[in-house]
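Consider the tokenized backbone below.
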């Protein structure tokens, strides 16, 4: 049986050590990026938070030897489904030509009440 190498990529977020997770994990050709929120939360709207979350995701993908072009799936959680077009705009700016399978779900709350959006990404290098 062949074992696939596993590599973890932390981002230094405060909650990583508390919760015991990595921003991204690569196993073989697969890269999983954890649910990611903006860090600058004061006075930012949902579009700005989505853009920042996607930027953090892009950095994690690059550290794992991947990038947005390899993303095959995203899952986005919003606290107000009325913000869907703001999140969609940010998502399309990053993934417009890639067109990953995508899910958008409204949730009751995120970790911090100022958080409006959280995004996960899954990439496969081919």
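A designed sequence for it:
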């Amino acid at each position: 049986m062949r074992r696939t190498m596993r590599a973890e990529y932390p981002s230094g977020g405060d909650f990583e050590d508390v919760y015991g997770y990595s921003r991204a994990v690569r196993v073989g050709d697969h890269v999983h990026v954890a649910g990611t929120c903006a860090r600058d939360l004061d006075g930012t709207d949902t579009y700005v938070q989505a853009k920042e979350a996607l930027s953090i995701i892009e950095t994690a993908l690059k550290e794992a030897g991947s990038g947005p072009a390899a993303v095959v799936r995203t899952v986005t959680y919003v606290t107000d489904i009325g913000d869907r077009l703001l999140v969609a705009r940010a998502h399309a700016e990053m993934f417009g030509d890639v067109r990953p399978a995508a899910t958008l779900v409204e949730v009751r709350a995120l970790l911090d009440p100022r958080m409006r959006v959280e995004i996960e990404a899954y990439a496969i290098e081919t």
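The mean pLDDT is 94.
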